[in-house]
Amino acid sequence: MVTRALDVVLLGPPGAGKGTQAKRLAATFNLLHISTGDLLREEVGKGSELGQQAASYMQKGELVPDDLVAKMLVTRLHSQQGLAGCVFDGYPRTRAQAELLDGLLAELGRRVDVAVYLEVPDDEVVARLGGRRSCPSCGAVYHLRTQPPARDGVCDVCGSQLVVREDDKEEVIRQRLAVYRTHTEPLLELYGGRGVLARVPGQGTPEEVFLRLADAVRGGRER
Ligand code: AMP
Question: How many Å apart are CA 83 and CA 165, to the nearest integer?
Fold first, then answer.
């Protein structure tokens, strides 16, 4: 039996828990996790030309220009065949990016099957991101209050020293939220108009949120 690919877009403000949930959705549904934020941080870490160009936008909480992000996206999208589709985390963030994604998926005979909006109020976003600690080596994410590492300041997975991401500082968080409201929130209308949008409350334990998300994704597969 040939099953159709499943492509999921995960929308939501910074700090909604997209990264954590996207990894789990990818593992559960056998999808390729594509996080443009992670890909950009990798490039910054390597000190590549792309990373150097992207870093100043990221530090200010602004969007990296579309053409830089698009190159990475295309490489990643074609990097692993044989998986059942993708979960896009942090992409698209603008209408132009949504159009590009439609075009790329159409070339592969695919489309956005479900766009899940993880809803979290602004104050909660600031509280969550302020307590976030990230591993610069393996990308694992912790939270001082809700998901602390076993040993203070040390990654459970790889033992590296945890850090506060430059863009998790409060003034940058406010800027990222403003960018999100202006550029990314209009995508809710776009996907809503196509009948592929599912709204999922982002509050509760990660497990509770995951179960809601998984239901929404299954709904997308059945459509
Ligand atoms: P994230 O980890 O998804 O919150 O992304 C961190 C930062 O990377 C954002 O604040 C942007 O500066 C940049 N970034 C990530 N994804 C994109 C995208 N699709 N378009 C433009 N900039 C992006």
Answer: 31
Residue 32 Cβ < 6 Å to ligand 1: no
d(CA 63, CA 148): 29
Catalytic residue IDs: 18, 93, 132, 165, 176
Strands 132-134 and 141-143: antiparallel
**102 Cβ partners below 8 Å, 6+ apart?**
111, 112
Cβ burial of 205 (10 Å; 0-12, 13-18, 19+) is exposed
Is the preceding omega at residue 65 within 30 degrees of 0, hence cis? no
pLDDT in tens, 148-196: 999 999 999 999 999 998 888 888 988 999 999 999 999 999 999 999 9
How far away, in angstroms, is 64 Cα from ligand 1 center? 7
Is any atom of ligand 1 closer than 6 Å to the C-beta of 63? Answer: yes
Query: Percentages helix, strand, coil for the chain, rounded to the nearest 5?
Result: 50, 15, 35
**pTM for this entry:** 0.88
Q: Measuring from atom 11 of ligand 1, which residue has the nearest CA?
A: 63
Nearest CA to ligand 1 atom 19: 91
Give the span between the Cα atoms of 24 and 30, in whole angstroms: 10
> Which of 21, 93, 169, 173 maximizes ligand 1 atoms within 8 Å of its Cβ, making it the mutation to test the pocket?
93
Single-letter code of the amino acid located at 165: R
**CB of residue 15 inside a 6 A radius of ligand 1:** no
